[in-house]
Amino acid sequence: MLGIQSVASYLPKGRVDNLEQADRFETDREFVEQKIGVATLPRFEDTDSVVSACVAAFDRLCGKANIDKSEIECVVLCTQNPDKGGLPHNSALVHAALELPEECACFDIGLGCSGYVYGLSVIQSFMAANRMKKGLFFTCDPYSRILDDDDKNTCLLFGDAASVTLISETPRYKLATAKFSTKGAGSDALQKTANGLEMNGRAVFNFALQDVPKQIKRTLVSAELTADDIDLFLLHQGSRFMLENTIKRAGIPAEKAPIRLSETGNTVSSSIPLLLEEELDNRPRRILMSGFGVGLSWATAIYEEEKSS
Amino acid sequence: MNHEEAVKIVMSMLEKNVEDLEMSEDKMDKTLVDLGVDSLDIMLVIMDVGEAAGVSISDDEAEGLDTPEKIVEFILGR
After folding, report:
1. Across the interface, do A209 and B59 touch by the CB < 8 Å criterion?
2. B43/A35 CB distance under 8 A
3. Which of A73, A108, A140, A266 has the fewest CB atoms within 10 Å, i.e. the most exposed one?
4. Would you call A180 an interface residue with chain B, using a CB distance cutoff of 8 Å?
5. What distance in Å separates the CA atoms of residue A87 and residue A90, rounded to the nearest whole number?
6. Is there a single domain that holds both residue A198 and residue A217?
7. A202 to B43: CB separation less than 8 angstroms, yes or no
8. Which pLDDT band, with edges at 50, 70 and 90, does A309 fall under?
9. Residue A25, SS3 per DSSP
10. Which residues fall within 8 angstroms of residue B32, CB to CB, at 6 or more apart?
11. pLDDT tens-digit readout, B8-39
């Protein structure tokens, strides 16, 4: 059965000092550090692109797993801010940059903060249906491309990053169960307009605190598990205050749910794999991931360690 | 729900969600900002009050609720 074999990420070298941004927006520094929880934001520089960041993540993956590029049969890339406006699909550009074989399926997925949980399920299902053995799932969503420089609601939050997850028949983690939800009627809470990214903070906050915990609980019930059975909860790192309260409302023990966005900010679909890469060394037996945001879209999945890994 | 019960809900939700805030009747007319409630705390308080009182508070309605007493009046009006 297919599953997650390895994960690697990449943070661009560019940095924005969020406390200096706080001064610019006449916002209390303590509020930015304690409530938003972000001290510095990684930012694409002029030389960075979705493709170059994905290639950099892949280079790091090669240091963690033995990868024969000729065996890669599938590349899926999750982004809402692709290079070249998404035409061609950026997975094809990554395919070219990595010099992957022609017998390789490539397609992009346009999802935001729920994208990692969704994308993992999509690539595993697609590969299983087509009897593929090795694939790469990339995330890279440089929201800095669409930020309105005068909008403190979003400028203080979003960071740029990329990740790649190796999906193979010799996985460390296999999907146990997943739930997917959408509230399209609320999609104007987070959207791109002529001015750039616009966010209704209260609507996103209410969504995260009211809808996400319910889905987490439903996912646990459907798997006939409780929070005690989960070793690690990886929740999308939106902002510290939102996370702390989502964790509380979901009944998750705080020590099992890392909050780590001080040096990354909200990296959209890359936030969960960034955490996952760091946490794999601790060998969690059972992991619950929950991604939520633009759409409004949210997805929760439970992955279990493969016993032979 | 009577006024006393509504006051109790609002005061308890403020104290629950805002660090070091001790509520009393004489603070009901002060603005939330003057009570040290920041913009994120306000969102949490409004959500908790709505759930505790069993009323739905829209984003637009929440914008105008800038004192504890206004929150009390709002939930009593529902």
Report:
1. no
2. no
3. A73
4. no
5. 7
6. yes
7. yes
8. low
9. coil
10. B42, B45, B66, B67, B68
11. 999 999 999 888 899 998 999 999 999 989 88
The model's pTM is 0.92
Among the partner-chain residues A201, A203, A245, the one whose CB lies closest to the CB of B44 is A245
Task: Using alpha carbons, select from A26, A34, A20, A143 the residue that is nearest to residue A81.
Answer: A143
Chain A partners of B38 at a C-beta cutoff of 8 Å?
A: 28, 31, 35
The residues facing A41 across adjacent strands are A16
A65 & A128 share domain: yes
**Interior CA angle at A111 toward A13 and A6, to 5°?**
60
Average pLDDT over residues A91-114: 98
Q: Quick one: A135 and A165 in the same domain?
A: yes
According to DSSP, residue B33 is labeled T
Nearest residue of B to residue A239, measured between CA atoms: B40
Contact B38 A209 (CB under 8 A): no
From CA A170, how far away is CA A175, in angstroms rounded? 13
Q: Does domain B3-76 correspond to CATH entry 1.10.1200.10? A: yes
Together in a domain, A244 and A191: yes
How many residue pairs bridge chain A and chain B with CB atoms within 8 Å of each other? 23
Residue that is last in its domain, among A171, A193, A228: A171
Express each pLDDT in A38-47 by its tens digit. 999 999 999 9
In this structure, chain B runs to a length of 78
State the total domains in chain A: 2
Whether residue A308 is predicted with pLDDT greater than 70 in this model: the reply is no
> Would you state the pLDDT for residue A109?
98
Query: Can you tell me the ipTM of this complex?
Result: 0.80
What residues of A are in contact with residue B47 (Cβ under 8 Å)?
A: 205-206, 209-210
Whether chain B has a CB inside 8 Å of the CB on A187: the answer is: no
The ranges assigned to domains in chain B are 3-76
Supply the range of the domain harboring residue A226.
174-305
Q: List the beta bridge partners of residue A199.
A: A190
> Are residues A298 and A206 located together in one domain of the fold?
yes
